[in-house]
Amino acid sequence: MSMEEDAEVHTKTGKKSNVLPLWGNERTMNMNNLILTNIQASHYFKMNLYELKTYHEVVDEIYYKVSHLEPWEKGSRKTAGQTGMCGGVRGVGAGGIVSTAYCLLYKLFTLKLTRKQLNGLLTHPDSPFIRGLGFMYIRYTQPPADLWDWYDEFLEDEEELDVKAGGGQVMTIGNMLRHFLTKLEWFSTLFPRIPVPIQQKLERQLSDRFPAPPPGAAAHAAVQRAPERRRDFEEYPEERVPPPPPPRVRRSPSHGRDSPAHKRSRTSPPPNRSVRHKERRSRSRSRDRERERHGDRGRNRDRSSRNGHSRHHKSSKDDHSRHRSHSSRDYASELLKERERQRRERDGSRSPPPSHR
């Protein structure tokens, strides 16, 4: 093969040619199987997106329909109670309603974008979500060794977009691209893995591009900004921020607004700590004396009750003994009377009857 033919092949299939290489699985776009299955089965992809045949029609659809970059719509995926490989991070648990953004991302994949079309997505001026889907297309389909070349000039891009379904997570384009280069997780799914040597090289390049601030740099910057802030306040006094209100003192429920403690705290300064300690000791001593007094009173009451009980027990015992002795005397007298009567009857029966002359 001559040098001219080699150069022609390189311009057609090389890195800078208009034909983009595809890395990984050319059928699934390296997406999670659950997400891909939901995309292919969704009514929106089969009916609405099937009618879009050109690149510009898909870009217009992104402009009108995409409002976040999550793979699932808000509240449509139930991942409560799932752990391990079936958890929310892996994206292999219960499915949900796949998002419009991911349906359109896969639609771009079916169009087999050229390099020129992909660059048009990255620099599109109408919507940050068009640019976001272009960067996600690169993360899913391009070789890991080419990611830095694609993302390099956009790492400090300050355009903002809300990537969370339902809103609440705004980030810049630059921060999103740094996340793509350093993290595998993207909400409830995973990006394709980057080989370890390439990942280490990307981290070194990021650390060289964005070095970590030295310790104390934030405090030093605040000290340098203090004169500028003071000068702004002197020039524009109406923009001064009022001082924050003092912290509210938490009171126990037993201390109301009409309590003496509350009035004292509002009208007089707090007492000295030593005086407060002496008052606390005097109150504790008075409570101890009152407790001892109540204890003596209770002991006297117990002693008097025990004495009364013993006297009552003794009187009842005497009455019982008197009753028992009286009853025994009555029984003896009755027994004597009965024996006397029986003796009389016997004597009367032994005497001879009178004779009749």
From TrEMBL:
Subcellular location: Nucleus
Keyword Nucleus: yes
Basic residues bias locations: 274-284, 306-315
GO cellular component: spliceosomal complex
Residue spans of biased composition, Basic and acidic residues class: 226-241, 285-305, 316-349
PANTHER family xrefs: PRE-MRNA-SPLICING FACTOR 38A-RELATED (PTHR23142)
Coiled coil: none
Pfam families, per database record: PRP38
Region (Disordered): 207-357
InterPro entries: PRP38
Function: Required for pre-mRNA splicing.
Alphabetic keyword roster: mRNA processing, mRNA splicing, Nucleus, Spliceosome
Name of the featured protein: Pre-mRNA-splicing factor 38
Family to which this protein belongs: Belongs to the PRP38 family.
Taxonomy, superkingdom: Eukaryota
Naturally occurring in which organism (per UniProt): Cloeon dipterum
An individual GO BP term: mRNA splicing, via spliceosome
